[in-house]
Write the structure tokens for this entry.
Amino acid sequence: MKKIIIALFCSLPIFASVHVTAAYPYIGELVKTIAKDKVEVSVIAQASSDPHFVTPRPSYIGILRNSDLLILNGGDLEIGWIPPLLAQSNNPKIIQGASGYLDLSKYIKLIDKPTNLSRAGGDVHGDGNPHYSLDPHNMLTLAKVIMLKLSNLDSANKNSYHANYDAFALHWGEKLAQWDSKMGSCRNSKLVQYHELFSYFLNRYSISTASTIEPLPGISPNSKHSMELIGLIRNEKIKLIIQDDYHETKSAQFIAEKSGAKAVILPHDVGALPNTASLEALFDTIVAKICQP
Amino acid sequence: MIKKSLLSLVCATALFAQNNEVEQLKKDMAQLQQQLSNMQKRIQTLEATKPVVEEKEETLESMAQETHSVPVATLLPDISLILNGGYTSRNKSNTQYAKKTSIPGFVDEGDMEIQNNAKDGFNFNYAEVAMGATVDPYFNASAIFHIHGDGTLEVEEAYFVTRALDYGLRVKAGKFKSAFGRANEKHHHAWNFEDQELINNTLFGLDGLGGEGAQLQWVAPTPFYLMAGFELFNGNPNQGFSAKESASTAVGYLKTSTSIKDLTLLAGVSYANGKSEIQNLDGLGDPIPDSFTNFGQTNIYGADFTLEYPLGNQSSLIWQNEWIQRDMDVAITTKKQAGYYSELLYKINGNWATGIRYDDITKNHAELSADSVNNLHRSSIKLDYKPFEFSRFRLQYNKDDSKFIDGEAKTINEIILNYTLELGAHGAHSF
């Protein structure tokens, strides 16, 4: 009996699994891929919501309070909602600078860094465009960073994290080759985006963004700008308008009808649209919708 | 990690010793030693065959993208400036409203504090200057100042909070607003409506419950949000407490929140206790200056609940309710007063929001006996337009049946147009 009690007492604090909180669904998927059942994962933002404007519900404070590791997209994407949650969760393990605070944007070279920071330009992020997770090639880096971080925090399962990463890297490499070849025919085309959300994906495949439906980042569309866009699309013979699932679709529909381009809704995160429940399915869908043979 | 390994070792030893399995342990040790020497040999062979160009193993440090050097300016506190003002139209003249208004049982004629949107006409309410930063690994600190149109400067809040305490604890000290209830802690520009909720205003005054004090909050390690807090403040007569005894106002609260599918519930109960005083009256019934009777207790009870239901991106429905009761027992004066507000807010999208509010004083047993004092209430409706995240225009209409003018119950109709502009490093608002 004594032995059992000692064993129980000893096992509780030592072998309790690591609690990981992911800011967005795609981060949660990466953690599940690397850690499998070795950690408990909670995801805060819902796939259906604008990643810039997550409601800082107090119920999330309870999740953060019990976390050993918080993984953020970074690049100021969470600036509108994570600071008050973090401040109220009273958990020194995951505050900025602690070992349980992981900002993934630090491991990616961000594009479109503004040379002049003024809110006259709308909602610009000082570090550059934060939507790097939509380039499938970045997933390998992100997966490796998460693998290394988990290995540091939970060295007992280090081998397992490494093995899972290797398996993922092998499989993802094959998928990247498939996507790269499928996108081949669409290189050097032009399109219009709602917000500069898919810029990393488009950059990867040399597709340029002729303009955005938003007159400035974060500013709602207006009719003057939409009329200009219609002219631009006609002049430059642009065929495609892409947008996310969370903004209104009326503007894109209107511009598409008047200009003859096709408006397409793309998933911006895992689970944002039907049949995008995994990282693989997310990029399968994006590739299929942007590059239709 | 070392601690954990040591602990495991101690535990393991304890377990084995219990069973007198020392023999087994010895065998294991011998096996381990064998393995160790095997590994040493393997390392030696590996080192001998090591390629000349060493492949660097990637670490988190080596994977980080180089960023240009951080300017020292980032060590300056985050600074923000908020401008707030507008235009008010009211069916009572400025003199009547400022000098002759009273709320029976709560505010005497001439004592009415109105700071925001006060005048019939243009109002510049304040320029708020807020600064905040991480002090060192252990503390964050912030200060919020209001510079009013008449040139007066007010320290709204100035406090530090701990950032590295364990066990879900956090301490705050300085001058700050109490987290009593739901509405009290928020600043004017973060309020759901232009004016303070009636029950909060009548019990705690314009600045709400708070002041110089200290706070301890604990977030419980539960799967849902559960927070307990305790605060101690100097008593403040504007909030119904006596300033004579040091740090005599105590506040405690329990808050919980959970999300069931899309629906979020936030609920709390609050309690405040402190010493109160009343002004002594002369034979004619007039107050004697600087003469107080001070041996009473005030107990304040609060309960609040908020439901939030998302309707789409940046669109939601929020129903917020709060009830507060005050039992004041000072000498011959006993006051039993209670009221509530109920607000229904509809965020239409990132640009537009609207809402309605009903304020009601449900209980007002003070020394006065007029029948009408039990029937103080106000109805409000508002429309917010935000061209962008950092600017907001608000139009609000109040039908205010909570005030007396020249001793008579009067309906005050007011229309308030207000602007709030947020410049600089503006922090995100909490729920």
Notes: The CA atoms of residues 82 and 422 of chain B lie 5 Å apart. Chain B has two domains: 2-46, 81-123+163-424. Residues 22-48 of chain B form the longest helix (27 residues).
